[in-house]
Amino acid sequence: MSNTDIAAAIDSLPPLREVIAAHELRATKALGQNFLLDMNITDKIARQAGDMSAHTVIEIGPGPGGLTRSLLRAGAGRVIAIEFDRRAVMALQSLVEASQGRLQVVEGDAMAVDINALAPQGPRMIIANLPYNIATPLVIGWLRNLRQDPAFVSRMLLMFQREVADRLTAPVGGKEYGRLGVVAQWLCDVKRAYDLPASAFTPAPKVSSAVVSFTPKALSADAPAFETVEKITAASFGQRRKMLRSSLGEYASLLADTGLAGDLRAEQLPVPDFIRLAQAAEKS
Prior knowledge:
Number of domains: 2
């Protein structure tokens, strides 16, 4: 079936609000659910991803399937949607049929799913309106996978609450600049695509959201292990008001090895300098 035929089949499905009502799919705070029902917005996210025709797109928490519909209509080669909520899994079955084999819904916990095993044939993208309560641990896990396997994903396009997006994209010296931003910006070109008001969601959360794009970088052959960078940044930002000579603790001797000033604070140190410290730690 062509993309045009699949798009027509999807457009013939009931509106999302009718799907929610039919399956009593009220958003649950405990699951971090806030549904994005405006297809103009979900279509915009799908367009932001570019050509997906050769990709398997992993979506987390599809809910009633708004973004899922947009991904399929935009020509994603295959979509694997991971959903914890049984109600949503059932609500997506009509979309599975309309997709003519391009959509697979996996019932399970996204924190426990092995994406490599689920989609062994690349290339892969991850595109999702992430549940707020697991967004940060999910992205840290994916960044760890990316360090271990540069082919893990070719791109991630993820929606976060604004506070997390601020931390991911924070420039050096900013108050939001910290461990999460350092690790993300080390491994990826991280860009804030656009912001969305709380009113775009059902129910409306108390905070606004932002879509963040991650494009993996090519790392040098001597790039440090993910765990080493985690340890260095944890020590540096653990007492961020202190100078590095104090906050780094057992790693303070690395400052002399790398020529970095000990009177700097963690938020003053650019990403490449954290990587130099991690490299020095591995050599020592």
